[in-house]
Structure formats: structure tokens, C-alpha cells
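Morning run. Coffee first, then this:
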Amino acid sequence: MSAFAQSTTDANSAPATPDQAAPAATSGIAGEGEIIVTAQRRAESILRVPIAISAIGGDTLSSKGITNSASLATAVPNLQVSSPYGSTQPNFSLRGISVANEYNSNQASPIGVYVDDIYLASRTAHGMGLFDMERVEVLRGPQGTLFGRNTTGGAINFITKTPTLSGNQGYGEVGYGNFNTFTAQAAVEATMVQDELGVRIAGNYAKGDGQIQNVYPGGRDANSQDTLQGRLTLRMRPGNGPLDIKLKVYGGRDRGSQAAMQGLQPYRRGLDFFQVNENRIGLNKTEAYGASATIAYSFSPALTFTSITSRDGGKQNLQQAADGSPLDVLDINWQSKFQQFSEEARLNYDAGKLKLVGGGFYGWDETITDNTFNIGQAIAPTINGGFFQHYRQVRRSYAIFAQGDYALTPKLTLTLGARYTWDRSQYRDGYAYLFAGDIGGTQTPLATTVPCQTVPGTCAYNAAARYQLDGRNNALTGRVSLGYTFDNGTLVYASYNRGYRSGAFNGGGYTSSAGINYIEPERVNAYEVGLKGRYFGNALTLSMAGFYYDYRNQQVQDTRPGPVSYLVNAPKAEVYGAEGEARLRVGPGLVLNLAAGYLHATYKELTLQSTNLAGNDLPFAPRFTAQAGADVTVFRNGSTGLTVSPNVAYFSRQYFSPFNAVNAVGTAQRNSELQQEGYAKVNLTAALTIDRFTIKAFANNLLNARTYAYGLDLRGAGFPYNFLVPAMPRTYGASIRVGF
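And here it is:
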């Protein structure tokens, strides 16, 4: 497996009730301990959960060099992470299901992202730095019952460390790496009343120069870091009784420079892969903040009530030069503000043969967008101007759910679950106009483009004109699973899951209102079989799964000359494959880790721009992925030891566009550019522990592999180039950590 979270819970004992989950979830990592997860909204061994899960502990995140959510693909089979903005607004792809070529901030991810069981509606908030983490749980396959909202592909739950209510502890860490990168991280936990009252405060800081050199005279380098995050968690358990309250506040901001991009080819001549020649590299300014209250009350050992209430917000201001040249062919300022509220209340019942979870959910989120697209010099070098776009999107989601596990026999368990969801969406205050003016200067409106059903410039400017639209859909999702546990502890299971992602507005419509529509929701019928177990005296831990998906109505962008973007549904796709994870303890000083995945994800029915794309691969869906690593303990003497952890991650060819290498007839497309051939990346860490101190050295992308992380068709939109984002070059450094 990917990591082992230690727990004192024996694999054969009764699972903990939800209010007992916190001690198990905060107990760290151990080589031989069980992984305790909450994938079914209760604490239980990962080997007893009939779901394909990767659980990565906090120490393993560090040893694999995973400091940001965008780096998770190096540790999880059949997971891809990409973004046109670097680590900002990552696009998660699980088993080929993703936002495809969609890049607008108003869209919901089909991979539900959660922090401490709280759903994050804004994709900007998904690009988080990972610090003071207990573990990350990656659930592959639709999670339409207990997680529910927008989880056609799966769910990722980031679980932070919370006060244990026992003693005082903490750590501090500082580091330095290439590109003049400084990092610092710390956490302090204090127990004011043993078993009753405690607090944990954690912070994270990273600042470094740009990792992609800009040769333009005086130009800013791309992909710099400037991140600051903080979190405070207060836990109260009055009288060490049945009431358990966790209050959390957090905040963070990022001011790093934009991701590098390769565009106009004449300005690539003479440049290295990790160089650009760009006059306006901007900053990715993002903020995220919020507060939550998780309240659990145990009425009895069998019955627990849990309420999770959260209020979150944030904003982004991404200043993106999108032509890769000293010209001003395409410069975009992506600005959005986000806020959300959510409440989930559930009851957990666990007695005898029945384990039951049921409850309700309400979520509200708002996105206010003000984007500026400067494209004047795409027409002629002396023209300055472009489009301004504004809209406000509000989404409300209501759901009721229940799932029960019933032991038909001591070894055979049946799981039945269902969720009914009501989604309501509003697109309000929509307007856009064509303007004349320099980048960052005064805009002189020339013509209204939204609302306007015809080509830009044909509707007179009307400052009062507004466009609005409503969307609504309901969905019944659910789960059926049958699991059998053999005498040796091996679990085999077969399951059916139905997943759902709500309908969506086209956030990319600004040159006319013709393409601003509300399209159909995505739906997935998923079938899976799996096996989990421990063998050879618990030296080997193994999990495997095979799956088949009937995938309907994937939401994809269709970019056309104008430039015009349409959000459309891909009617039908087929996804099938297999994956496995293994962990082998060869001896006291050697542990091997291996994960591998095979994926066949293709469109069965899709036509874009009058071009039949049936048989093409889904974007960001490589056929083969593999990760292999080792933890080699060179020596250990009491509290002193040296561990070296090399790992390699392999990804076969993947396409960035539903067109794959096909060009629409009559266009200037060169879609063969929008792909990444197969590649491998090698990472290495070495950690020397001396009592309370740990000195670590690391190297990520050790061999400096030159790969693309993202690509978008701009030639089809009328620009003379495609948009390509290079992935990170080699990074290396060292840190020292002290625990107390």
C-alpha cells in the first residue's frame, strides 16, 4: 500500500465509532500497523473496506516529496494531476474521469475534494500546500452515496492533524533548495486539560525564485513560489464524555509567478525546454480561508450523531501571459471570488450484524467572475483591446443519504446505499463587451457581446444589458456491494456504484451569449471487483481491483474560431482497467512499494466541429501508470538511523484534448502537439534521524525529465499556436526538523 497509518485497533476487532476515530487517525505511521481510514464515514481498517483506496500518511507524503496536492499523481495509480496555472486550480483525473479540457474556475471537479470531510466547491482551493497532515485518502471510482456531490470519478479527502488531548508536542522544520527556495513548517499542540481540552496550531511557508528562466530582458521568471498558510484547531471533550467538538480556522495565500507556457514558435528558437521569452509573466494571486465545527455526540456505544458545519471563502487573481512571446497576442487576467457554506448531519449505528450511516447534506456556493482577455495584437501589432467578462454563479445542493452493511454470515457482508440529490444553479448578472485599450489601462467599451447572439461587434454597447440563466437537475445515486472475508483475512468484493456530476454553465462564453448554456449532468455506472489482504506473516500487503464504467455526458470544451468556447456533453464513453498496490517488508531494513494501473478510456460517441472522435482516448488518461519505491534503512541504533527512499513514477502517453491527434476539417488545428509521450520521473530522499532531529535531503525529477503538464488547442480558436505548459524541472534541497 502507499502508506501505513498506525492504529492500536486490531484488524479483527470491532471498528471504532466516529467519535473514537480521532485517536486512531492521529496516531502516525508504523510499519506493521493497520491503516485506519474513514472512507465509509466511520473508522475502520483499509483492508475491510470494499473500495479501491490509496491512503498516504503524513510521513510518507514527506518522504515522497509530496508538498502540494498537485504532486499526488506520483503516489496513486491511475491518478493524473494537471493545470494551465501550475499548482493553482489543479485538475484531478482518476481512471480517466476529469474536467478534460475545461479551464474555467466556475466548474466543479468530478473528483470531489474534501478537507476533514468538508467538500470544497472551488477548484482554486484544491491547489493547497500539504502540511501537518495525518493522511490523504484517495477513493477511486464513483462515491455517489456517502460523499455524493460531484464524485463521478472519485474523492480525495485531505485529513489534517487534530489535538490528541494527551500531552504537549510539536515540531519545527526549515529547509533550503535550488532556485533560492526557503521553506519553513511548524506545529505546536498543547493539552490544557488531559482528555478534555487541547489546541493545535500549524503553519507553512515557502518562497523561491522562478523555476523556469525568462530570457526577456528584465522579465520575471515563471513558476516562483510565495506561499503562507496557517491553521488552528481546538478540540473539546467535556469530562472526557460523549461530546467531542472540533473547531478549526485556517487561512492561506499564494503570490507565486504564473506557470510557464510555450506558445508562438518563432520565439522558441534557441531556447532550452525550461526557458521562455515572455514580456508579461504575471503573478498567481490566490487566497483561501474558512472555519468549521465538527460536533460528535455518542448516545451509546452503538449510536453516534455527527454534525459538520463550514464556511469558506477565497479569491484568485491570475495574471497570465498566454502567448509565450514578447508580443501581446493573448494576455488574460482571471479574477474570481468564491464563498461557500455547507452542513452535513449524520447518524452512525453499529450493533450486531448491522452498520448503518444516514443523514442529510446542504451546500451553497457562489462564484463572482471578472475576466479580461486582451487579444488585440492577435489581429494586428498596433491593435490593443479585447473582451471583458462578468457573471455571478450560485449553486445550491440538497441531499439525503443512507448506507448499511449487513453481515449475512460472519464472512459475507452485503452493502446497500442510496443518495438523492437536488441541484439548483443560477447564472446571474452576465455581461461582456468588446473594448479598446492597453493591457492594464483604461478600457473603452465598443460593443456588447453578452447578451448578444451574433458575432462580436454586431451589437451596440449597452451598459445595462444583462444575461441570466437557470439550471436544475435531480439524481438518484447509490451503491451495492458484496464482500467475503476468507479465514486468512483476504477480502474479495464485487460492487456496483452510480455516480453523478451536476449540470454546468459555460463559464467560457464571452464573445457572444450563443454558447452560454446549461448542459446535462454527467453519470457513471461503475462495476468493480477487488481483493485485499496481508500475506507471508504480514510481510506483504496487497490490494487489486478491476473495473468497468459506462460513462455518459462528460462535460468538455469545444473551442472554435472567434474565439468562441462552447461547453458540450460527450454522449458516451467506455472506461475499463485494473490497478494494484503492494507493500513488501523484505527485512528490518528494506521495504518495497509498488503500484501499477492499466486504463482503457475511450469515447464511444463524440462529435466536435463536425469531426467524429469515437474511439479517441479521454484527455489525461494514460494507458499505463506505475510507481515503484523503496525505504532502505542503512543503519539504525536506537533513536538514530539513516533511511534512503528512492522512487520512480512512470506514465505512458496521454492526450490533452478529446481530438487526440485528429484535426477538424477546415481548421488550422495541430492537435498532435497536444500530447505527452510516455515518461518516467525519479525522486530521491534521504533522512538522518538523531534523537529528536531529522536531517533530510531530497531531489525531485532527479533526471530532469522534460515533459508537458497541460495543453490546450488555441489554433482552432484562430491563434497561430497551441498552449503548452511545461512541468517542473529538477528540484533539490535539504531541511532540518526538530520534534518536541
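The helical segments are 21-25, 58-63. Good start to the day.
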